Each structure stands twice: as structure tokens, then as C-alpha cells.
Amino acid sequence: MTGTEARETVPQLLLPNTKGFRPKPAPRSTAMKNVKDESVLPAISLNSADGLTVLYGQPHATHIALQALVDHALTGHPVVYLDGLHTFDALLIGRLARHRRHQPRKALSMIHVARVFSAKQLERLLSHCLVGALERYQARTAVISGLLETLSADCLTDHEVNRLTDRMIESVRHVTSQGFSLLCPCPSVPSPMAPAHRLFSTLRSLSHRCIHITPSPSNPTASALQFSHAPVAQLDRAAVS
Known about the structure:
alpha/beta; 19% strand
């Protein structure tokens, strides 16, 4: 499969109310930039009963999410991907599928992608389009990339950040209350004074699975996962080497 064929295979969601908007071409994904060997990365699973899963702490959180996305798609489950960080890469998805001894088309045909270029667009998709898209494609799971990063844009005022944060939190509550599951990879953790810190803290408190990626104590080139199950479960450390 060529690069053009791989990209054309991915279904696209239509953005609402983007008349007059001229986005720049999305940059190529850098999810694999610092990952030399996929085997050193931990693996997580996607299940429709997971509710909200927050995956955070390391730049390769997005790559771990993409691995889970491919594994879920290859089992025949459709997935919706809201891409606010421009991390979705059809060529990478194809490579992950071939690594699992499947044709790239099998995974790509099950993934429905919407790329956005601002926090306002991402919030509109999350609030007004996501449930409908999940129902249309008979999917039970969505991956949301870039929630924190788009909210940290310099062009947003404090009032806009607070308004978008409130709407995003309410939308996450609504989507998960409908029985759908969400995976939110967060490559970086915002500082307490950062615009996205309130959203990050609230997502952690709402999550059914909160997974912190840390360096593996037994292997410096690998990572470990700390799982926290809401609301006050003990942390279980699972090192992967």
C-alpha cells in the first residue's frame, strides 16, 4: 500500500461550521520520533466499559494510544479519532498493523478521523458531533488527542479558556454517561499555572482509569505504567521491559 493509498483509506469526519477557515496542512506525526523499538513500550487495551481513560506523563503517550487504537481496530471494532495534535499518521498505523501480521487496510478502514486546528473546533466536535459519529459508525470508543495542547494556545483569553474547559468537562461527562469510552493521551503534564491545568486535573478525577507513564526502574530504555482506578483505588505498578 502506498502512502497516498493509506491516507485515502482513512474515513474522515466533517468539521462543523468551518466556512472561511483555511487550515495549514497538518504536519507529519512525530509519535515515533524518539521510539526506536516498539517492544520497549507498555501496552494498554481499549474496552467499551472503560469509561474515561487518561494516559499521561511521557511524550510517547500518544504512541501507546495509537498501539491500543490499532489493536482495537484489528479486532473488528470501529474507533473514532479526534485529532487536535496532528498525531494520526496512516503510514504509522499501517506499520503497526503489519507488525501484527495484518494488512494496513484492515485497521485503517475501522478508524474514523476528524482533524481539528483549535480548541474551539475540538470542543464543538466533542460537544455536538462525537456521540452522533459514534452511533453512525457503530463505535463504542473514541480517542481524543490534543485536549490540553489546543487549550494552551496563546490566542485564547482566560475567559475563553475557562468557558472551553467547562464545556469540555461537561461533554466528557455526557459522552461517558451514554456508555461510550474515551481515551485521552496527554504527552505533557501542564504546570499548576498553565491554562490547561484545571482541565487536566478534572479529567484525572473523572477518569475510570488514570495511567501514569514513568521510566521503568529495571530498564532505562523502557517505561512503566501506574494504574489508578477511580475514585480512590490503590496504585498498582506494572513495569514493562
